[in-house]
Design a protein that fits this description.
By secondary structure, the chain is of the alpha/beta class. The protein has one domain: 3-Layer(aba) Sandwich (Rossmann fold), CATH 3.40.50.150. It is built from 6 helices and 11 strands. The chain has helices at about 25-30, 65-80, 135-145, 225-235, 250-260, 270-280, and strands at about 5, 20, 35-40, 80-90, 145-155, 170-180, 195, 200, 205-210, 240-245, 260-265. The chain has a 9-stranded mixed beta sheet with strand order 1-2-11-10-3-4-6-5-9. Strands 7-8 form a two-stranded antiparallel ribbon. A hairpin with a 6-residue loop joins strand 7 (about 195) and strand 8 (about 200). Helix 2 (about 65-80) crosses helix 3 (about 135-145). It is globular, with a radius of gyration of 19 Å.
């Protein structure tokens, strides 16, 4: 079972060289060994879109800059734990301003989206503005020293319908590829894609069509395995250790093990830590 990390130095729980740590990533990462991980694949909580009902959760900040600053701080500490040729694959979603409506009504198709709070409209933006959270975060990480190497468009063929009449329905998110150094590990051959169905392959393009996936007991849509797989294949070799500081239901760990890698997952919410253990077969 996972450890509830009340002190940042107690995280000895492991299973076949893998670990699930229940605790705050900002407290756990500083006590981790430098240059331990080859690759990080993660999807942190999106700003103002979900209430996980956990004290200290990222994503519930009143101010957008506080959210960005919190993630920059987490990833700065994570960068120290990556090998010099390590990479960060970061998925983060966007949002629209609420027009200062401080709640979100229950959604029949998405009960998890109901919230008793919503953050105020960020300074300088207007009601109904698309905030641009992914790019604001990407530029902040770039300013903090990360190399921003690619913006990958995650196209969702089965995207959720939206009851909007004044803009297109959103059917994509971003996955950013960052590196710690100018030269880094990237196995292009491992993720070559089919070229026009003629049997030939080509270098992977930046638009990836991947359906969203649900997992029983988790929030309505989890990090899809087919989105994670090419990130791990390109960013690591067998027996490397992958880290996900926002582990959720454990999808990154499941994919990592399936590809012959080890992993460390950090998760703030104990219920999700237990869910990940069951998913990985660590408990019934």
């Amino acid at each position: 079972m996972a450890i509830n990390l009340k002190q940042p130095t107690i995280f000895d729980m492991h299973h076949d060289g893998c670990e699930i740590i229940v605790g705050d990533a900002m407290r756990v990462l500083p006590v981790m060994q430098s240059s331990r991980f080859r690759c990080c694949v993660t999807s942190p909580p999106y700003w103002g879109l979900r209430d996980y009902d956990v004290r200290g959760q990222i994503g519930a900040e009143e101010d957008l800059q506080q959210y960005i600053s919190a993630l920059v701080a987490v990833f700065a500490e994570l960068r120290r734990t990556l090998t010099d040729d390590g990479t960060l694959w970061l998925n983060v979603g966007d949002a629209y301003t609420s027009g200062n409506r401080r709640w979100r009504a229950t959604d029949r198709k998405n009960p998890a989206r109901a919230m008793s709070y919503r953050p105020p409209t960020p300074t300088g933006l207007k009601p109904k503005d698309l905030i641009g959270v992914p790019w604001r975060l990407a530029f902040a990480l770039q300013d903090d020293g990360w190399y921003l190497r690619s913006d990958i468009v995650w196209h969702k063929p089965n995207c959720q319908p939206e009851s909007v009449k004044d803009r297109p329905t959103r059917s994509h998110e971003y996955v950013f590829l960052f590196s710690k150094s100018e030269k880094y590990h990237y196995d292009a051959e491992a993720i070559r894609e089919s070229a026009n169905g003629n049997g030939k392959t080509r270098n992977r393009r930046t638009v990836w069509s991947v359906n969203t996936e649900a997992y029983p007991g988790a929030h309505f849509a989890t990090f899809p395995t087919s989105l994670i797989k090419p990130c791990i294949l390109a960013g690591s070799s067998k027996e490397d250790v992958i880290i996900d500081p926002f582990f959720g239901s454990g999808t990154v760990g499941e994919v990592a093990v399936g590809l012959g890698r080890k992993f460390v997952g950090i998760e703030l919410k104990p219920e999700y830590g237990e869910l990940a253990e069951r998913r990985l077969g660590w408990r019934e």
